[in-house]
Amino acid sequence: MGLSAARKIEVVTTVAELRARIAEWRAEGLTVGLVPTMGALHEGHMSLFRQAKMMADKVVVSVFVNPTQFGPNEDFDAYPRKLEEDCFKAKMAGASLVFAPAVEDMYPKGNATLVDVTGPIVDCLCGLARPGHFRGVATVVSKLLLMVLPDVAIFGEKDYQQLMVIRRMVTDLAIPVRIEGAPIHREVDGLALSSRNAYLSDSERANANRLYKSLWQAGQDILGGKRVQDALDWVADELVRLGFGRIDYLELRDAETLAEMDRLDRPARLFAAVFMGKTRLIDNLPIEPRPQ
Ligand code: AMP
Question: What's the pTM value of the predicted model, to 2 decimals?
Answer without folding.
Answer: 0.96
